Amino acid sequence: MHVMKTFSGIAITVLLIVAACLTNAQTSTDLEIKRAYKNLIDAENGHDLAAVKGMVWDSPLALFVAKAPVGWHGYWGIDDVMQYLHDMYQQPFRIDPVYEEEKVVFITPDVAEAYAPVRITVAYGGQNPVPKPFIMVLVWIKTPKGWKMTTDIPIPIPPDPAAAARGKASH
User: Fold this and answer.
1) In-domain check, residue 13
2) Residue 89's closest CA among 118, 129, 119?
3) How many domains does the chain have?
4) How far is 32 from 104, CA to CA, in rounded Å?
5) Per-residue b/e over 47-82, b at no fewer than 16 CB within 10 Å?
6) Dist. CA 78–CA 62, nearest whole Å
7) What's 47's domain CATH number?
8) Is the dihedral angle over the CA atoms 25, 31, 32, 34 positive or is it negative?
9) Is residue 103 part of a domain?
10) Beta strand spans in the chain (E)
């Protein structure tokens, strides 16, 4: 009887460990999206328009939201997106993601959303080229040619008012 209790305890422990590993494990499809995202960032940081174009969904529904010379603007369709990127790459531009915090959520088996905190340095449209924090949200679609980015929305993170208040109080 004691042997059965010990065996049962070990079996339950092993099952709990396996369940925890499966819950935290990344699937090969998660890794495909993360690899595609890293390749996109590398191409953007290298100002490689041809490589970026190969990773963007070739559709009039592709969307890139970005700071424009006046306000923010949605650039629709691969041609509009590529023209915006061409113009932006004429100035300093860099994205530095926190890859360890990137998350991938599958909406369907062929549509995924990726979320990653980033710092974007850009001088386009008269901006001061200082790294600024954003949350980048991208939507990916699986095509016969692999995963393609359909939507890129960088969300600016405003300064923390509590941190600013602490900074003023210490002076």
Assistant:
1) no
2) 129
3) 1
4) 10
5) eeeeebeebbbeeeebbbbbbeeeeeeebebbebbb
6) 6
7) 3.10.450.50
8) positive
9) yes
10) 63-67, 72-76, 93-97, 103-108, 111-122, 132-143, 146-156
Q: Which amino acid is at 67?
A: K
Say how many residues make up the chain: 171
Residue 47's SS3 state is coil
Model pTM?
0.77
Amino acid at position 127, single letter: Q
Rounded CA gap, 156 and 7, in Å? 54
Does 57 fall in a domain?
Answer: yes
17: in domain:
no
Write out the chain's pLDDT in tens, 171 residues: 554 454 444 545 443 343 443 444 467 888 999 999 999 999 999 999 999 999 999 999 999 999 877 888 999 999 999 999 999 898 889 999 999 999 999 999 999 999 999 999 988 767 778 899 999 999 999 999 999 999 999 999 988 877 666 666 555
Domain that holds residue 92: 24-169
